[in-house]
Amino acid sequence: MSFLSADPPVVWVKDRKQNGVRAILTFSPDGQPRSRIDDAGPYGDLKWAAVGGGRVITAADYQGSQSTLKRLVAFDLDTGRERWREDLGAVDRFEDLYVDGSRVTVIATSSKYDDHYYVFDAATGDEEEDRGIRDYETGVYVLHHKGLFITVRWSPGERPVSVYERW
Questions:
Q1: Strand partners for 139
Q2: Closest C-alpha to 55, from 20, 18, 86, 14
Q3: Predicted pLDDT at 155
Q4: How sure is the predictor about 151, in pLDDT bands with cuts at 50, 70 and 90?
Q5: How far, in Å, CA of 167 to CA of 146, rounded?
Q6: How many CA atoms lie within 13 A of 76 on its CB side?
Q7: What is the phi/psi pair of residue 106, to 5°?
Q8: Smallest Cα–Cα separation from 103: which of 79, 127, 71, 82?
Q9: Does residue 119 contact residue 164 with C-beta atoms inside 8 Å?
Q10: φ/ψ of residue 141, rounded to 5
Q11: To 5 degrees, how large is the angle CA 62–CA 7–CA 107?
Q12: Adjacency order of strands within the sheet including 22-27
């Protein structure tokens, strides 16, 4: 189990037993169950999750016609119903998913295309920004501070740091 949020309480249960619970569970401030979002469904297989703006924002893998693709899916905290989804296509993996108030920031890497930094409106899923990122690599640390995001990549002999601000 992992905690996604303390206020409001949201946990992600990943029971390894065959018939175990594999879902994101949301609770009211007094600890009463509110909603359940299954680990897998018509939206795909959930891989990452963050909480903000009255939503549980998730990154999911889904099966396209020829390969596994990536998408963001937002669920309502109170009901667990899907509110919006945004397909990101053939990116290799998600490196970061961060919700800050009304904005969702995603960094996705691709071996074939540019790596991207995306910003979406948490309430509607409208894309606010899509920016290619040069020389981004997997296995980085991402820090968020006052509207900036800072990437730190560790490689032999160097410690490159990049700072990006929202356009």
A1: none
A2: 86
A3: 62
A4: confident
A5: 14
A6: 7
A7: -130, 135
A8: 127
A9: no
A10: -100, 135
A11: 35
A12: 2-6, 9-14, 22-27, 33-38
